[in-house]
TrEMBL record:
This is SDR family oxidoreductase. It holds the Pfam family adh_short. The keyword Oxidoreductase applies. Keywords: Oxidoreductase. Residues 3-178 form the Ketoreductase domain. InterPro entries: KR_dom, NAD(P)-bd_dom_sf, Sc_DH/Rdtase_CS, SDR_fam. Belongs to the short-chain dehydrogenases/reductases (SDR) family.
């Protein structure tokens, strides 16, 4: 049966790998871009998909953006794949680094979930959060990013309990370091050379995500970690 998925972060990395897999099997995609131009670019990247303009830096604008998009009354899956990162020690991170990461990585996911929940409930669907290993353990220089991802875990855990009576499943995927543009940016901030072959392929994370989405209704994967395998 053809399903409908709303995805953030579908322009690159893990989000793009997931979107391509779902598109390849004939599902309907609603792709969120930060501007009208970017939303149109995403829709052109996967012909047949629908682009929605919503800037994750401004969650207060989502209600109007989604109303203008005229979304379907039932959405099978909302996949939160977008995120930003700015590293630095607590003693040097300015408030803007905290605010930006908490807004994009956490508050935007909470607000988009709130606004789409009626459609997800109508489909007895699923909300899937692409989190991070930083959502489980915080390391030096990762405080703000890890705080946003720890918060995302709390959001998912609370939502899972709240929405069970509506038949909505909630899954969090915790990828380790994955070969994505964000990982390349992390290496730039760390001052290290970047070798994508040393990390998880986004397709491997996408395989994990699809397994969780396709699980029969009698079961739920609440949390799953994906780590680099032995080479």
């Amino acid at each position: 049966m053809t399903q409908t998925h709303l995805i953030t972060g579908a322009g690159s990395g893990i989000g793009l790998a997931i979107a391509r897999r779902l598109d390849g099997r004939g599902d309907r995609l609603i792709l969120v871009g930060r501007s009208r131009a970017r939303a149109d670019e995403l829709a052109a990247l996967l012909p047949g998909s629908h682009g929605v303009a919503a800037d994750l830096r401004h969650p207060d604008s989502f209600a109007d953006a989604l109303a203008a998009a005229d979304l379907p009354g039932a959405i099978d899956t909302v996949i939160h794949g977008a995120g930003i990162v700015e590293l630095g020690p607590v003693g040097k991170l300015r408030p803007s680094a905290w605010i930006d990461q908490l807004t994009v990585n956490l508050v935007a996911a909470a607000e988009l979930t709130r606004l789409t929940l009626p459609a997800v409930r109508a489909a007895r669907g699923q909300v899937l959060f692409v989190n991070s290993g930083a959502g489980l353990t915080a390391h030096p220089d990762w405080s703000a990013y890890a705080a946003s991802k720890h918060g995302l875990k709390a959001l998912a855990d609370a939502l899972r309990g709240e929405e069970a009576t509506h038949g909505v499943r909630v899954t969090t995927v915790y990828p380790g370091r994955t070969a994505t543009p964000m990982q390349e940016e992390v290496h730039r901030q760390e001052g290290r050379a970047y070798d994508p072959a040393a990390f998880i392929d986004p397709e491997s994370v996408a395989t994990t995500v699809l397994a969780a989405l396709d699980l029969p209704r009698d079961a739920l994967v609440p949390d799953v970690s994906v780590r680099p395998g032995p080479r």
